[in-house]
Design a protein that fits this description.
alpha+beta; 27% strand; single chain; 6 strands
Length: 171
Amino acid sequence: MKSIFSILFMTFISISIHAQSQVELLLNDAKEFNEAFLKGDFEKYIDMTIPSVIEVAGGKDVMVTNAKASYDMTTKSGLAYESISPLKPSKFMFAGRELQSILPQTIITKIGKTKISQKVYFLASSSDEGKTWTFLNLEPYDTASIKTFVPSYTGDIEIPAADQPELIGDN
C-alpha cells in the first residue's frame, strides 16, 4: 500500500513539474515574441507567429511587410507601445498534434502623455509538446474565423473578448 502511494505521489509530482516547465517555456517564448514586436524585429516576430497563419496570409515576406506597415502607421499616428506582459495561460489542450493555450497579455500604450492598459488574448500553439511556442493575437477573430487561419483550433478553449482599454495615467 505504501509503495502504491509513493508511486502515485511521484507520478503526480512529475506531471506537475512538466506542466510548470511548459508554462515557463510558454511565458519565456511570449516575452521573446513581445520583445521582437516592441523592437521592430518583424522577421523574428513573424517567425514566432503560428505557421498556418503565415501560410494563409501569403507567406513570411508578405506578413513581415504587413506587420511593419501596420506598426509604422500606428506609431506615426502618435501611439507608442511601452510594454507587453504575458500573464498566466489557460489550461493546455491538445488539438490534434498541437498543444494550445490562451495567453492573456497586458499591453501598455501611450498617446501623448496618456497611458492606456488593455488585456488582450493570444492563441499559443506548440507542435513539440511545449518546448517552443508560436502566437497569434486573437483580437480580430471569433471562434469561427480563427479556424480559417488555425485549422487545428478545435474551439475547446474559449476565446475571451478583449477587455476594454483602461486609462492608467496622464503625465
